[in-house]
Design brief:
This protein has about 180 residues and is mainly α. It is about 70% helix and about 0% strand. The chain has helices at about 10, 15-40, 40-60, 70-85, 105-125, 130-140, 145-150, 155-175. Helix 7 crosses helix 8 (about 155-175).
Length: about 180
């Protein structure tokens, strides 16, 4: 199922197969997004579970998305994560920026790569919260400007501006 072409009416009428297909297609990306932001597998799993639970409740009460299901679910996850930060501001931002390590990799290259990823991660953490979200959704989740705007509840122009400011700040911090 492609969530962008899936018949929304099947999802809105709680068609079991459509909902299972939707979960199987979107839950891995939602998990990665939540894990990067929360730094905890347990919290990321809870986020995905709560997101789909809230989504089903919304559908059962006649609410829910009118068009972009993916953006709607990411927005719900975004809101849940924001609530977690409000409740527990000490949550780690240590996202899973680690790559799969090939056992034949050169150790000095692995160390250099890890140091560079850590440097980028720290630079991203210096960004304001909304700019962090834009960078993560655009470049790590590879979502379009339109999808990012829908998830963050902003206009496309606003998310483009956030991305522009974030990339400029990162460029400045990383070239120092």
């Amino acid at each position: 199922m492609n969530v962008n072409t899936a018949p929304l009416v099947e999802i809105q009428t709680l068609d079991k197969k459509a909902l299972v297909d939707l979960y199987e297609e979107l839950s891995p990306g939602l998990f990665r997004y939540a894990y990067r932001l929360l730094g905890s597998q347990e919290l990321a799993e809870e986020c995905v579970s709560e997101t789909f639970s809230r989504f089903l409740r919304a559908l059962q009460t006649g609410r829910g998305p009118s068009e972009n299901v993916q953006a709607y679910l990411y927005r719900m996850a975004h809101n849940w994560i924001t609530d977690q930060y409000r409740r527990k501001p000490q949550l780690s931002l240590d996202g899973d920026l680690e790559q799969q390590v090939d056992e034949h990799s050169n150790p000095s290259h692995l160390i250099a790569d890890r140091l560079e990823r850590e440097r980028v991660r720290k630079a991203i953490m210096q960004l304001p919260f909304e700019q962090q979200r834009v960078i993560e959704l655009r470049f790590l989740e590879e979502l379009s400007h339109e999808e990012v705007a829908a998830i963050l509840g902003k206009s496309v122009e606003a998310t483009r501006a956030l991305q522009y400011r974030a990339l400029n700040a990162l460029r400045q911090w990383l070239t120092e």
